[in-house]
Specification:
The chain has a domain of 85 residues. Helix 1 runs antiparallel to helix 3 and helix 2 runs antiparallel to helix 3. It has 158 residues and is mainly alpha-helical. The chain is built from four helices and no strands. The chain is elongated and about 60 Å long.
Length: 158
C-alpha cells in the first residue's frame, strides 16, 4: 500500500526567511549609508540648482536650500539606519540593546568601569559604517590626488 507523498516540511522555511530578512536589512543599511555620502549631496545640489535658476551670481537662497536639504536627508538616513539596526537585531534574534550613558555624560564617581569586562565585537551596522567611511575616504584621496585639476592655476600655492 502506497502512501501519498508528504508535503515538504516547513521546518526550514522560518530559518530561510530569517536569513533572507537579515540579508535584506543589511543591504538596506549599506544602501542608506552609501546615500549619506553620495545621494544626499547630489540631491541637495540639484535642489540648490533649481533654486538658483539661470542667475550667474550665487544666491544665498540656493546655499540655504542646499544646507537645508542636505541636513534633512542626513537626518532621515541616520534615523533609517538606526531603525534598520533594530530590525536586524530582531531578524537574528538578539535582545534589544539597552541604552548606555555616553562616557562624556557619565559621572566621574564611577570612574572607568570594570577593566576585566570583555569588549563586545562590532555589530554588522558598525562594520558597514566603518567600511563605508574607509571606502569613501580612499575614493576621495584617489580623486583629489589623481583626478582633481586646477583650472585657475592657483592650486597648491602656484
Amino acid at each position: 500500500m502506497e502512501t501519498a507523498p508528504q508535503p515538504a516540511s516547513d521546518a526550514g522555511r522560518p530559518a530561510r526567511r530569517k536569513k533572507s530578512v537579515w540579508r535584506r536589512v543589511l543591504a538596506a543599511m549599506v544602501l542608506a549609508t552609501l546615500n549619506i555620502w553620495t545621494g544626499s549631496p547630489v540631491l541637495a545640489l540639484w535642489v540648490g540648482s533649481k533654486v538658483q535658476g539661470n542667475v550667474t551670481t550665487l544666491k544665498m537662497s540656493a546655499v540655504g536650500a542646499v544646507v537645508l536639504v542636505l541636513s534633512v536627508m542626513v537626518l532621515v538616513l541616520t534615523r533609517a539606519i538606526a531603525w534598520l539596526d533594530v530590525r536586524y537585531a530582531e531578524a537574528v534574534g538578539k535582545p534589544p540593546k539597552k541604552r548606555q550613558v555616553r562616557p562624556w555624560m557619565r559621572s566621574l564617581a564611577g570612574k572607568y568601569g570594570d577593566p576585566k569586562q570583555e569588549t563586545e565585537p562590532l555589530t554588522p551596522l558598525e562594520w558597514v559604517l566603518v567600511v563605508m567611511v574607509v571606502v569613501v575616504v580612499v575614493l576621495f584621496e584617489v580623486w583629489f590626488f589623481f583626478f582633481a585639476r586646477c583650472s585657475s592655476g592657483a592650486c597648491f600655492g602656484n
